[in-house]
Amino acid sequence: MSAIEIKEVVKTYFNRRDSSTVVDKLSIGVERGEVFGFLGPNGAGKTTTMKMLVGLTRPTSGALKVLGEKPDAPEVKKKIGFMPESSSFYLYLSGKEFLSFIADIFGLSKDKKEEKINKLLHEVNLYEARDVQIRKYSKGMGQRLGLAQALINDPEVLFLDEPLDGLDPMGRAEAKELLIKLKKAEKTIFFNSHILSDVEDICDRVGIIDKGHLIAVGTVKEIKGDFLTLEEAFVNIIKKERIKNS
After folding, report:
1. What CATH number corresponds to the domain at position 45?
2. 109 to 81, 119, 203: CA distances (angstroms)
3. By CB neighbour count within 10 A (0-12 exposed, 13-18 middle, 19+ buried), where does 152 fall?
């Protein structure tokens, strides 16, 4: 059984005058333990797809399954972690208090909660700032806290929307190291990123979406082809697709 199944998914937004289809007949399968990079220009449909996968919005048509169930099933919610592009925090809580709040939502015991929170704070390099109010965090610190909250329940499947955005080079290196560690632990990771050099280092496979359509999917090596970098290949694939459809 695949960890993630997307079959002929369409997402259309309607208003009084017209409609806008942002995801169109999308089909992707992601295996358990795979790290899958979901790439595309701004407005391509990446974030909408991720919102459907975590049950925040429903498709207009088609089917999505995570761990064999619909994304909004209660048993699935317990087994996934989600880091949105713009994480929402209670700004007057400290980083540690916020993670404690999230741990309570998942029902972690007091002993397990304390151990887990301290471990995560060390892993995202926020332990020294654990008692600082979140309103005083930099953007990069907020990103790292968002990653920690996505891991609080030890998820089987992790959905990350731009997890490396806003991080300085050291923060990016630490986040990449953590993602590689999760990969070795055979976690399934589905993530969006504009930093294609990092995607190239981490991912097993990537999919490229443009204007709601999946236009390429394969291993990093397959997508790169004769290009030196994934970024060069990505730009070439997007340009060719747009010329074809012009």
Report:
1. 3.40.50.300
2. 18, 15, 34
3. buried
For residue 121, being part of any structural domain is answered with no
Residue 90: the pLDDT is 84
Report whether 29 contacts 4 (CB < 8 A): yes
Residue 148 lies in a domain: no
Q: How many Cα atoms occupy the beta-carbon half-sphere of 54 within 13 Å?
A: 22
User: By C-alpha distance, which of 69, 95, 96 is closest to 80?
Assistant: 69
* C-alpha closest to that of 197 among 222, 166, 233: 233
Q: Confirm whether pTM is higher than 0.70.
A: yes
**Residue 147 counted as domain residue:** no
Position 14 in a domain: yes
Give Cβ neighbours of residue 197 (< 8 Å, ≥ 6 apart).
229, 230, 231
102 close to 87: Cβ distance less than 8 angstroms: no
Rounded to whole angstroms, the Cα distance separating 128 from 122 reads 8
**pLDDT for res 181:** 87
Domains identified in the chain, total number: 1
Residue 16 is predicted with a pLDDT of 79
Mean pLDDT of residues grouped by 10 in the chain (246 residues)? Answer: 94 88 96 95 92 95 96 93 83 93 90 92 93 91 91 95 85 86 92 90 94 95 93 94 86
**12, 40 in Cβ contact below 8 A?**
no
DSSP string, 175-210: HHHHHHHHHHTT-EEEEE-S-HHHHHHH-SEEEEEE
Range of the domain at 243: 1-79+194-246
pLDDT at 237: 94
